[in-house]
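Summary of Year 1 activities. Much of the first year was spent building the evaluation harness for sequence design. The harness presents a backbone, in tokenized form, and records the residue chosen at every position. We chose the following record to illustrate the format because it has been used consistently in internal testing since the harness was completed.
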């Protein structure tokens, strides 16, 4: 016969696990309690099939996060990221699961599907990383650039993360509400948005990108202010020049600029550099900071004389 045991009686996960091993004993627990204690933390990373998103996924895999690997169209790359993450974690003695999920973050129905997928696969969300973003298909002078390009960038780079954050935040609040009162010590969930130095740097051949990133930078102060009462900290990471497919077409230009001293730290940034900043946030190393911007740009933002 099964004998129910209240979760509140357990001091920690090990107690609960040993109780579960006891014959004729089982824990009857709510969806957030035992499962939350036992499971890996879960991160949803948008645009994780390639580039910076993949770098973030790999760094989170190393510290034992289960991952939702979102992508727009490149399924092969997303599967590859997932496999690499699981292998990386395995090499460090950690068992994680990385699940690819196609969703165009510009579309409301896809955003809802992405959150539902995360619920179905993992049942919780500890970290949302708004990373997916696009550059204009054609770099065009602001006197000639098209409205189509502007709309595309605003939809993907601003509207997508803004409303995905809304969905994720509501779910996080709902889950925090369930844990409250159970006395379960749980690291609070967090939200990170990857913007760009283009949020404050004018590039007249891609005004749409700069406008979109400047708008995106308001996401963090808004949600940081709104979510602090729930214990959810919100951060922005502002990468500089990072070696990915996005910067592939302008590689020679940036090679030259970096060699000429564009950044005090004289090298290209890597997806791993951004991933490490996300890990610092994920590990709760900035508990009394919210709405904060982390520049991961080799010092690009410094004014120098
Ligand atoms: P990337 O190599 O071009 O990768 C873009 C990623 O976003 C891919 O995973 C892509 O999926 C995904 N994606 C594109 N549109 C999407 C959509 N509508 N819905 C969902 N996913 C979508 O770009 P990256 O250089 O890694 O850039 C990542 C983020 O960092 C972007 O927000 C970018 O603006 C920002 N950033 C980049 C740099 C840099 O120097 N690279 C600097 C500052 C900021 P698919 O593989 O399926 O296409």
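For this record, the design step produced the sequence shown next.
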């Amino acid at each position: 016969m099964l004998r129910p045991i209240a979760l509140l009686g357990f001091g920690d996960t090990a107690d609960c696990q040993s109780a579960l091993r006891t014959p004729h004993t089982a824990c009857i627990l709510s969806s957030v309690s035992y499962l939350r204690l036992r499971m890996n933390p879960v991160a949803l990373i948008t645009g994780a099939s390639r580039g910076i998103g993949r770098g973030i996924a790999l760094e989170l895999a190393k510290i034992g996060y289960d991952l939702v690997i979102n992508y727009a169209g490149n399924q092969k790359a997303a599967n590859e990221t997932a496999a690499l993450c699981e292998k990386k974690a395995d090499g460090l003695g950690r068992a994680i699961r990385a699940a690819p999920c196609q969703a165009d973050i510009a579309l409301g129905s896809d955003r809802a599907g992405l959150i539902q997928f995360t619920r179905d696969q993992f049942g919780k969300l500890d970290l949302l990383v708004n990373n997916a973003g696009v550059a204009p298909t054609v770099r065009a002078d602001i006197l000639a650039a098209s409205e189509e390009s502007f709309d595309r960038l605003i939809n993907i780079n601003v509207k997508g993360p803004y409303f995905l954050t809304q969905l994720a935040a509501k779910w996080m609040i709902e889950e925090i509400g369930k844990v409250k009162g159970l006395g379960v010590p749980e690291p609070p969930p967090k939200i990170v948005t990857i913007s760009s130095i283009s949020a404050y740097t004018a590039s007249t051949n891609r005004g749409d990108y700069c406008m979109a990133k400047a708008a995106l930078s308001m996401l963090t102060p808004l949600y940081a202010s709104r979510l602090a009462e729930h214990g959810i900290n919100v951060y922005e990471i502002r990468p500089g020049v990072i070696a990915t497919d996005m910067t592939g077409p302008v590689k020679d230009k940036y090679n030259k600029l970096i060699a000429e001293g564009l950044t005090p730290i004289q090298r290209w940034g890597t997806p791993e550099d951004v991933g490490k900043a996300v890990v610092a946030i994920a590990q709760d190393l900035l508990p009394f900071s919210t709405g904060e911007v982390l520049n991961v740009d080799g010092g690009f933002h410094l004014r120098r004389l």
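The chain has ten helices and seven strands. Quantitative recovery figures across the full test set are reported in Table 2.
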